[in-house]
Amino acid sequence: MDDRPGLVGERRVFDAMKELGTGAYEGVVGKRVRRKEDSRLVTGHGRFVSDLEFPRMRHVAFLRSPLAHANIGSVDVSEAAALPGVRKVFTGDRPDFRSVHLIAQSALPTYVETAQPVLANEKVRFAGEAVAAVVADSRYLAEDALERIRVDYEVLPPSVDAMVYPEVPVHAEAPDNVLLARTFTAGDVDEAFAGSAVVIERELTTNRHAGNPMECRAGVALWDAHEDKLVLYLGTQIPHLVRNMLAELLGLAEGNVRVVAPDVGGGFGTKAVLYPEDVALCLMARAMPGVPLKWVEDRAEHLLAAAHARDHHYRMKAGFGPDGTLLALDAAVTCNVGAYSVYPWTAGIEPLMAGGLLSGPYRLENYRCSVRGVATNTACAGPYRGVARPATVFAMETMFNAAAAQLGISDLDIRRRNLIRPEDVPYRMPSRLVDDSGTYLECLAKCVVAIDYDAVRVEQRRRRTTGENPLGIGVACYNELTGLGRAAAAGPRMPFRTGHDACTVRVEPDGTVTVLSGVTTQGQGLETTIAQIVADAVGVGYDDVNVRIGDTNESLWGFGAFSSRQAVIGGGAAHRAGQMVREQILKLAALVYETADPTLVAGEVWGSDTEKPIGTLSELARIAYLESNRLPEGIEPGLQATTFFDPIRGAFAAGVQMAVVEIDRSTGELRILNYVCAEDAGRVINPQVVDGQIMGAFAQGIGGALYEHLIYDEGGNLSTGTLMDYLMPSSHEIPELTIEHVSRPADNPLGVRGVGEGATLGPNAVLAGAVFDAVGVEVTDLPITPNRVWGALQ
What we know:
alpha+beta; seven-stranded mixed sheet; five-stranded mixed sheet; 20 helices; 24% strand; disordered N terminus
């Protein structure tokens, strides 16, 4: 308990109530509580963009290029515009559209800026790029009208493979298609290789895939011509950033743009982007004032045109000492970033994250990693849960597995020898990021026990003597950089830093508490966790806290939902604002109730030596707002505080995963028998929410490891453009997951570490390692399909 002045009386009440057995002072942080979102979401009363209906609403459909690379000649919309029910047809050659371009900016000297049009008007650069848009009375009529638009294309040779020099570049500004390049260095790599007992070299590729949230991209835009104001309802993870960017692009005062993110049916990074379609919707609304325009992306459009991710190529070289110590790492990483530099995160979001975090949770002094972001005539690559790190973990763990096999040491021993230890913390990684976790060995130990490692090895040896289907154990260790403050940037040097969020906590005249938080939810349960934080910080009941999020007209500022940042940063802001309001309440209570050391417990005011409450927050709130004649001298009306929080550096979260798999030699099929994940989330705010985040991330990791693959043919056509071809796991394919926790508090007000992405990072490496352990087949290309395993076995 804190011994600060003003909290001594609270300690006395704490102790007294514990003796009475009431448990009233345990608080709600750290507990499973009834989630505030559930009453509407599980009963079908969620309010997603798809649910929105407004008077006079019209519907939008986009005409998308069937070609990957072509010059645009004429665009004839006359037949489409003449259809009954069609209100307007828009093309990219309109002056208002031609004047707006999305240009993602970076201060890196090697970065090549390129412009992305709102609607393609001179050239299309990937199959699926929007060329025209129809506004009609229904989506059906709009889709019919698209078939009547005639576009004259001049076909150009497409670039699909980032490892092949282009015949015709995607952008004239980058003749070699390289939009960004950077080399990370530390130590003397060449000298370390010369002294290595074993040098391992591998070439690896990872599979391109998509976010596929429940609700695809969606928006409703409404323009008020009288006040020159724009309202945009958008399924987005970054409403404040969207407001900022739209105001700049459209030449509006930022206060004249309102962005509302209602319930968002999943995002996973895919909705952390401002897309051309979003801007086009707003421009169309400005051209049709007073008419709400609605666009909801269908699944085929999502697979074709929403941001893709993880199309990487790795050339890895690692040097090890005779005892398995990692001495040097030299890597060349090429990321296919698609046709445009995604806005605002740039083409550097994946390659720079890969180079910055490739070494993961392992101690390493000698490091060289050259990364490139290469443009191709494919959909843009953008943020997706665990940005780049599912690929980097796969690459690193492949090297450790190969080295262990060549040196004749165990998969566990080589990792134990190299993992960052508690005594190493804070550990400066070769990319100069500072890892503050240090619980990797503890996470590994928990997985070893939970999976019954020794017993599995015994069974593995027995099966090898009987000819039964072989077993394999896979392991992956990873670090998740969460809650990035302004001094912990690991990505592009954009014109802004994503280090802080704001929160307002306000006591209402009836004594309930309203929280206007800058966080944005996409299903993480943030209404619940923010309410828990504020309830404890202020000293009120959980049910008396109402959290409002996602509307830029209400909350002051929040950068949004990405990089596992919201519990650390948004939660930190909520905690600080709640504490500030608590101080106001106690100051007022001391004067009103004439007590020197009051405290607030579940909305009741206690004196330092009283055996029962002497007042309530609702009484104080009435005085603060309604009975100003009772306000003590020097006390202003109201009970409210707004504050920002920036953790400056951020918090690393440690993680380890292990699995036991069985391989059917006759088919190459992989069956997961046991899977364990141990993570250090620091102080846990809500165990149910944390476990849910781990399970969801794990499910997406399994999908990426075994099933999901966006495949383009040589002409730049997407061959896996529907869920008939693009395989996604169902609940049947997701195995049971045993979750273990380590809780080393981080250096922030709540002691929390982010947990939203970590479990996505392991499955590629775990399952590839398990295949190698079971049958000696190295997986160098993802996903791990039965056909690939069977072919390698032959």
